[in-house]
Amino acid sequence: MHVTEAVTHPAPAPVRRRIARRLPATRAAPLLAGVLLLHLVLALLAFDPTPFTGGDNAGYVTLARSLLERRAYLDLYDPAAPPHSQYPPVFPAALAVALAAGITPWVGLKLLVVGFSLVAVGFTFLWLRRHGWPGTAPWVALLVAVSPGVLEQSHWVLSDVPFWAFTMVALWAFERLGPDDWRRFAVAVAATVLAYFTRSAGLPLVVAAMLWLALRRHWRQLAVFTLIIAPLATLWWLRARALGGVDYVEQFLMVNPYAPELGRIGPREFLERVIENDRRYIGIHLPALLLGLEGRLLLPLSGAILLLAALGWGGRMRRPGVPELFLPLYAGLLLSWPHVWSGKRFLLPVLPAILAYAGIGLCRVSRRFAPRLARVAAPAGALLVLAAAAPAVHEAAVTGVECTRLYALGERYPCVDQDWRDYFELAEWARRALPDGAVVLSRKPRLFYLISGHPGRVYPFSADPDTFFAAARDAGARYVVMDYLDLLGLRYLAPVLVRRAASFCVMRSLGPTRAVLFGILGDSTDVQSPPGESEAKEDAVYAICPDEFWRDRGPSADEDAPGPQ
User: Fold this and answer.
1) Which phi and psi angles does 49 have, rounded to 5°?
2) Of 295, 353, 376, 530, which has the most beta carbons under 10 Å away?
């Protein structure tokens, strides 16, 4: 009897690649579940129940309430309640659904954003597996899930995390999309539309998707994609233009949108802006997002990550996908806009791609110079980054637990500094003390409105008293808040308060160099200080506001009435 020995022949390369993609599938679900569970636990430990102090969160919640209460898209915080044309409507609509379901600010809506963060991390994992990097997916998803900056952003009621989530869903759906796979194409189109109408910065994703469909000659899908998104984008643009909304092009051309007196940029200033943004994102924002750290010593590390990412990205450009096209377009947008708008949260949509391409670049370098280490280079690099981020993650968890504990004990704003506590305290007090319909000028009118219920506008960024009183008359404002949140109050409002001291009275003062709520008596020009004396606010003396400025003169107002200042 002859025994024939079995001979095993290596499978063809395409078959091996298909097997390699299928083999990790048995471990994919547990790995994904583990990463998501870790992200959820860390996000809840780092949870901050206090409001985001930027004010955009209050703007989104106000728009959501407008959708529910007025069935219209209005800026209710403004005394004129004009139609809103700046923020796209998807995130406010999501908040409106949450409010209608009984979820309340701030904690409930913050947990909703945590849910979006889980979606973003999950689809980061799924996108990388579909992208052909099953071994990379757990490491990149893990890095994203535990990044201190990601954990911080996961509890702010802002559109950045939802935008990131929709972007990752779109990248996953477009990956390896066949020309006849209309079901997944529908998911890709829906996610792209939702991303674009969550943040206008989604335009690079739209352009990247259209370019990719054209490069792949998916003409029917390109036509359908264009027919869906072009009318929607055009209608939104026409609405904003008709309403005279925020002109992003005009703000883009300013040296500083918060200091319009500085004028517009020229070619030289634009180059300087790009260089400054590049410095900020490499030296500040990327390390802060990924490691929770800042400092010049981190510049070589973040620079190395970006160089490796560029190397990995370049290797994919022989047959680019949507991510390869989206990354440079989005990066160009970040480098081009005013540097005062730069921030780590804007890196969220491209952080997974940067880390994935950096891993590919590291493996290529290792294969070239240290072949024996090529297999462990990417995991070792990921572990080093995790170790560097661990102290910031621990600190965020400790701080978050303490903030939540104090909030549970009844302290409404436990994790903001004294100047912000003063601002929120005045807003809460104004709800009781000011008459219905009172209009207040302040630095953050959306936050003031959401807490106090009183509409208002930003006081003009001008130290000219005539400009201030013209703005007050236009808004119908009889009150103004002098705060110390930033330098703008001291730069613009304080000189007006001193030079026209007879035009103001005090409603409530929280103490020297602390927030004050003033009443506006009228434009009195009979008492003026020379311009050079406009810095010494404490030299001015103000009377207590008369009865007509108060809701009533009962205990709720009188017990907190200030003395002359």
Assistant:
1) -80, -5
2) 353
